[in-house]
Design a protein that fits this description.
Blueprint (H helix, E strand, L loop, with lengths): L1 E12 L1 H10 L7 E10 L4 H4 L3 E7 L2 E10 L2 E9 L1 H10 L7 H7 L8 E15 L2 E10 L2 E10 L2 H14 L10 H13 L1
Antiparallel strand pairs: 1-5, 1-8, 2-3, 2-6, 3-4, 4-5, 6-7, 7-8
Amino acid sequence: MSQNIEIEFKNMLTKQEYLGLIEHFQIQEKDFFQQENHYFDTADFLLKQNKSALRIRKKQNAYELTLKQPHSEGLLETNKLLTKEESKAIFQTGSIIFEPFVSILTKMNIAPKNICYFGSLTTIRAEKEIGNGLLVLDHSFYLNEEDYELEYEVSDAKEGQASFNKILESCQIPVRQAKNKVQRFYLKKHEQQK
């Protein structure tokens, strides 16, 4: 079990900009890998209402349960590595039995037994260390949608913002507001439920 603060900057991209960044940063085909984010919430979106998100990420043969919550400097992530069997049990039942997840959910007035599986988002990702951060290029697929995104993960928000702005400026990419993946997923899911 671990906790960390996630500080990242995001920008949505056109396909052309995405391909241009791959060329600009000399990212090779071997640098790409696939990951799956599987999202959970209550039927009435209580996690979303608390500006929080719960997911299991499958990357190669590893599974990680992550609860993201708002934090003054970004997002507070609570993480737990899972076995394939533990992951499968959560998919089938939605039931979260691990501390401190149970404790955090309970503090948000969310009964862990009311968690259910909402669906998945698949991302083809490339990562590259640039300056004091990690540059991330994502091509994501979910609920009959696909999009392109640039992320820049840093440990210092002020420095990171300046570096991120320089990347956008040097590649002539306009600033575009980017909701995080779970928000984009939820918006589409909510649309489909209407």
